[in-house]
Amino acid sequence: MFRGSMVALVTPMLEDESVDFDALEKLIEFHIASETDAIVAMGTTGESATLDMEEHCEVVRFVVEKVNGRIPVIAGTGANSTSEAISLTQCAKEAGADACLLVTPYYNKPTQEGLYQHYKKIAETVDIPQVLYNVPGRTACDLLPETVIRLAQVKNIIGIKEATGDISRVAQIKAGVSPEFDLYTGDDATAIDFILAGGHGGISVTANVAPKQLHDAYAAALAGDEVKAKELDAPLQAIHRDIFIESNPIPVKWAVAEMGLMGGTLRLPMTPLSESCKPIVRKALIEAGIALN
Questions:
Q1: Is 133 known to be catalytic?
Q2: Active-site position among 133, 184, 218, 253
């Protein structure tokens, strides 16, 4: 349903920690001009865990309104409470989002059957395309390929963001789902190999700072041009690594602020990028040819 480079968009904030909607509009226009293929609002990188439900829905509504149909908008609506995930997903549908991205329930560590019932309940309750999101490094919960294959039978579950970095999962999942079921990577460092193995794109943190470069690299990979894709991605490898030098989205918010696109405020428990890390991230950005203030 969606293809290419999809940005896991940061949420800019003012010094009082309220959402900076002026900067958010600036980021939206930056991504559209840079040929980003879709915007993912209120995912992990958007600090969804520390925005309340009203703020969460307000950001999604704002992004949908400002994008105005120019590219798809996917709303992060996952939660570790099934009822809360349903409420957020309903809100995204009412806002006009094109699809929802639902992270596995974090902290409570459900069984595979619990995961199946959680996602099935949301999908059957809210009629909007839904993308599963597996990131066990953050959630302590791994959505296994066999469960993904079961869930792919639910009509409005249309794909998965697989963020383990395990390329073998592409083949495992594809073997049991229809060709229409989409696979997106959430691991920037292995994204090109993921797409070349049969994936359809990526939901990327790096795309916040290098959207055009990543769009071009993913497009080459989707076209099957391995040499060109890896050539385009090579200058971004240091960013893929160093943008996670501290917990996401700490480094990427600092980087986007250094590009002059917004301020660098985060909400606790996220804290500003450590001074010792700033030169490392800056060097990766400069080496990739990204203009900084």
A1: yes
A2: 133
- Beta-carbon neighbour count of residue 211 at 10 Å? 22
Q: Is 121 a catalytic residue?
A: no
Q: What is the dihedral of CA 179, 182, 188, 189, to 10 degrees?
A: -20
Query: Each residue of 240-292: pLDDT tens digit?
Result: 999 999 999 999 999 999 999 999 999 999 999 999 999 999 999 999 999 99
pLDDT in tens, 212-231: 999 999 999 999 999 999 99
Exactly one of 93, 161, 184, 218 is catalytic; name it.
161
